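ok so i was messing around last nite and threw this chain in just to see what happens. nothing serious, just curious
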Amino acid sequence: MLIQFSQSIDGFLHDVFVTNFTWWAVIGIFGQLLFMARFVVQWIASERAGRSVVPLAFWFFSIGGAAIVLAYGIHRRDPVIILWQTLSFFINFRILALIAKERRQRGKVGIEGGE
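result:
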């Protein structure tokens, strides 16, 4: 029984990581690495600030990762990846728009306050 289980796992791992390992898999892994990088960037920024912060680079890594993983999901015709990454893509762009709006408003306040 244990030998059969081991052979089943071996077959599964071979199928996933050897048989199905294509250039599209490399692209998908790269997209996932961008997602991981955004958390590393946030962690470093938070450690430096001594509190939880979300730097602007976090959102750019999010958009890059979403775009690449979305392309991978479309290639694979995977509805779960397509739906989530499409939503993620638009949410990240909306957050960047809100950040830009806030920065513009802060700039206006600084100019008006100086008059």
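not much to say yet. The CA atoms of residues 27 and 72 lie 7 Å apart.
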